[in-house]
Design brief:
The chain is α/β, with parallel strands linked by helices. The strands form 6 sheets. A 6-stranded mixed beta sheet has the order 17-16-13-18-19-20, with helices on both faces. Helix 3 packs parallel to helix 9, helix 5 packs parallel to helix 6 and helix 7 crosses helix 8. The termini are far apart.
Length: 391
């Protein structure tokens, strides 16, 4: 009965981030404080959003008298949108466990799941310190680029020591470097296919969401390289257009637009895409087309429009490897049915490589990638094209 002698014997507070990052592990913290004068055991049920499909999110905490303790857990959302937290239920028992008392904390609270801004921050930080290679990004030597002086700034680990400004270093008594930028700002558009072919799931995340996360990161890299970043989506019609620009507000516009993208489960109209590009994009631009082709027939239906787009722009077709097929191919076949399945899987895998070859034959570059490597491979391609002066 000692548990009921005080009005408030324990305090608990759930601390949520401002928003969740889609496809990433997001930390949630709960702070507990024991207001009793004796040790207690807590059984905690946190009513997390239903989208995570975890009905009884239960964990245990032990507290000494007057002790404060933090409990940290992570959640990985796989869909953008609004998630709702319920109550935080804390069941307190004494050492003997004969009596239990329930406390309820934290009213219902909504939290918004945005495209992967954690991934954006990760690449943003390492781009600034020239350590992108730690995430698989290649070091690409610039070829034939003309550069102009931009500013003098503080030296950062990873900067080229050949750019040290010794006069400024002597005046400030700290290392200073000259920063240069490409003379001409290029235009880069992320074009996201939001038709039904992009709803195929991988690791609980749709291909559409992988494309959205990648578009967010590549747009930030493009802006850091002093190029203009823009985007739009298409299926039956072209939507969600953001005209390429270098304004400070551009990343906010792109993030908010990517958050609100929804598929209409329609068949994508590449003819309408071509007409829209011809009418709206006047200058030669780098167009990153996120889509998917499963076989040569699906490519051939759209190839005339892709070739027409590539006449006036540098088009990169980005599509996906079927990871499940790869697992099936690598698995040893033990019976006739498994042999048949393996042969079919190998044919689909071979078709993907034929698509790359077919696009190359018509002068169109492509990226065939596993979903989890999409962002790195896209940034590598952009940096490679920029270093060669192709855009």
């Amino acid at each position: 009965m000692l548990l009921y002698l005080v009005n408030e014997g324990v305090n608990a507070q759930r601390i949520l981030p401002e928003k969740f990052s889609n496809g990433d592990e997001n930390p949630v913290s709960i702070t507990f404080k024991n207001l009793y004068k004796f040790p207690i055991h807590l059984n905690v049920i946190d009513e997390i959003p239903f989208q995570f499909q975890i009905r009884d999110f239960l964990f245990k905490v032990n507290l000494k008298p007057a002790e404060t303790k933090d409990y940290l857990y992570t959640l990985r959302p796989t869909k953008r949108g609004v998630y709702q937290y319920g109550k935080l239920n804390v069941y307190v028992t004494s050492i003997l466990g004969l009596v239990k008392r329930r406390y309820i904390f934290s009213d219902k609270k909504n939290i918004v799941v945005y495209p992967s801004f954690l991934q954006l921050h990760k690449y943003d930080l390492h781009a600034f310190t020239n350590r992108l290679h730690e995430y698989g990004l290649k070091k690409i030597r610039k070829i034939g680029n003309t550069m102009e002086f931009e500013q003098i700034r503080d030296y950062i680990i990873g900067d080229d020591i050949r750019n040290l400004n010794w006069k400024a270093t002597a005046k400030r008594n700290t290392l200073m470097v000259n920063q240069f930028q490409d003379e001409k700002s290029q235009t880069v558009y992320s074009m996201i296919d939001k038709g039904r072919i992009m709803m195929m799931p991988f690791n609980e995340l749709s291909l559409l969401d992988y494309a959205i996360n990648s578009s967010l990161v590549i747009s930030n890299v493009v802006l850091q390289k002093n190029d203009k970043a823009g985007m739009f989506t298409f299926s039956e019609k072209v939507e969600n257009r953001i005209v390429a620009d270098r304004k400070k507000s551009q990343m906010y516009k792109i993030l908010e637009t990517l958050y609100n993208i929804k598929t209409d489960y329609a068949e994508s109209d590449f003819e309408r895409l071509y007409i829209d590009i011809k009418r709206k994009i006047y200058h030669r631009s780098l167009l990153l087309l996120y889509t998917n082709f499963e076989n040569l027939d699906s490519l051939h239906r759209q190839l005339p429009y892709l070739r027409a787009i590539a006449k006036n722009h540098l088009l990169i077709v980005i599509f996906f490897k079927n990871v499940e097929l790869k697992k099936l191919i690598e698995k040893e076949a033990l019976n006739t049915r498994q042999i048949y399945q393996k042969v079919i899987a190998e044919k689909f895998e071979f078709d993907k490589n034929l698509i790359v070859h077919e696009l190359k034959k018509h002068g169109i570059q492509s990226i065939l990638t596993e979903p989890q490597n999409l962002t790195v491979n896209t940034i590598n391609k952009y940096l490679e094209l920029k270093s060669r002066g192709s855009i």
